[in-house]
Batch of 2 targets.
Target 1
Amino acid sequence: MQKTIGVNELQSNLRGVVNEVIGQHTPYILTLRDQPEAALIPYAEFLRFLLWKEADILSEFDTVLSELAEENAVYTVEEIDADVEAAIAETRSIA
């Protein structure tokens, strides 16, 4: 079960709170002016969060890549090459 603690109270009880987070795996919500602003969680949970976030980002990237592949499937390699060459030529003429 998570607990909530104000930043000022945390300052005076830091060692005890950290020991509770580590030893009992109790997450703490840190508040500032009664508003939740941060969380103190065991390191293993933080690592799981990072892996989940990375998987979420990769999944989103795969979705976008798939959508782009569908949209671009109507163009031939020759058309793409011609567009790239035209863009290069236009860029060089501006510079």
Target 2
Amino acid sequence: MSAEIINLRMVRKQKQRQDKDQAADDNRRKFGRSKAEREAARKRRDDLEKQVDGHLLDTPRPPDDNGAA
């Protein structure tokens, strides 16, 4: 009658990998967005920027570089 010998270090590392994978899956579900959602947000942001820029009274001009400091 002999018991199966296990390497505790390997078991510990395997458990850590499983925990890390589970945390990654949870984060993907919690924070992940599909490509369509990212594109829709980008388009909405661009449209809003154009709308705001269209309502500016004066267009900003770069400072004059006349050498005076």
